[in-house]
Amino acid sequence: QSGRIGSNVQNLEIEGIKDIIAVASGKGGVGKSTTAVNLAVSLAKKCQLRVGLLDADIHGPSVPLMMKLHGKPELSAEKKMIPIESYGVKCMSMGSLVDQDAAIVWRGPMVMKALEQMTRGVDWGFLDILVVDMPPGTGDAQISISQRLQLSGALIVSTPQDVALMDARRGVKMFSQVNVPILGILENMSYFKCPKCSETSYIFGKGGACKTAEDSGMEFLGEIPLEVGIRSGSDEGIPIVVSNPDSAVSEAYSDVAHRV
Ligand code: ADP
C-alpha cells in the first residue's frame, strides 16, 4: 500500500492483553497524559474493565505524579516487574524505574529498549485494555511504538488552537500510515467557564477539533473544559474522575471510555 511505513518490524506482543489503545497528541502540553489517566480510571471504574496504563512518554513521564505512584515495581518469581496498581489501574512508567533526569537524554535505541522492558518485561496479567500514554509528536519513536505494540486504535487529543490541530492532523496521518485506526479526536481545554460570573471564554478558539474531525471523517469524542479541578487533580495525584466522579467533566471522560 502506497505511503505505508515498513511492516517488517519486530512486534512487542504482550500475552493476555485484549486491546492496546494509544492516547496521542501531535504536540506536548495539550493534555494527553491527563486524558490517558482519566480515561484509564474511567475504563476501570465505569466500564468495569481490567485496565493497564503504560506511560510510553519515556522523556517526560507524568503517570507517577498523576496516579500517585510510590516506589519501584516489585519483581515476580519469573523476574518480571509487577505493575503498581492505583485507582484500579495497573501502571508502568519510566518515572517509577529511574531518576527522572536519567532518561531525558536517552536516544532512540535506548528508548525502545526501555519500552521493551516496560511491555514484555512486565507481569501485566490478563487485561481487557492497555492504555498507552504516547510521547508527544509524530517522529520515529511514535512510529516504532505504534507498530511494535500492535495498537488496536489511537485517540487523538488536541486543544482547539490551530497550531495544535495542525499537529493533530499530522498524528492522524502518521497512524494511518502504520494502519492504526483512529478512535476519534477529543478536544481538551475547549473553554473556560468563570466560576464567579459564569461567562464562558474560548481561550484557545472555538470548535476547531470538531471541525477537524468532520473534515477528516473522524469521530469527535467531545469537549473537556479548562478547569482548575483537572489541573489540581493531576498535580495531587487524584484524577478528577476519582475526586469528583459526578462532575460534568467526569461524565465526559466516562462517555469517551464507553465509546473507545
Ligand atoms: P501532555 O501530556 O499533552 O503534555 P498534560 O496532560 O501533562 O499534557 O497537561 C499539561 C498541563 O495542563 C498539566 O499541568 C495538566 O494538569 C494541565 N491540564 C491538562 N488538561 C487540563 C484541563 N482540561 N484543565 C486544566 N488543566 C489541564
Automatic annotation (TrEMBL):
Keywords: 4Fe-4S, ATP-binding, Iron, Iron-sulfur, Membrane, Metal-binding, Mitochondrion, Nucleotide-binding, Transit peptide, Transmembrane, Transmembrane helix. GO terms for molecular function: 4 iron, 4 sulfur cluster binding; ATP binding; ATP-dependent FeS chaperone activity; metal ion binding. One of its GO terms (cellular component) is mitochondrial matrix. Its cofactor is [4Fe-4S] cluster. It comes from the Eukaryota. Signal peptide: none annotated. GO terms for biological process: iron-sulfur cluster assembly; mitochondrial respiratory chain complex I assembly. It is found in: Mitochondrion. Belongs to the Mrp/NBP35 ATP-binding proteins family. This is Nucleotide-binding protein-like.
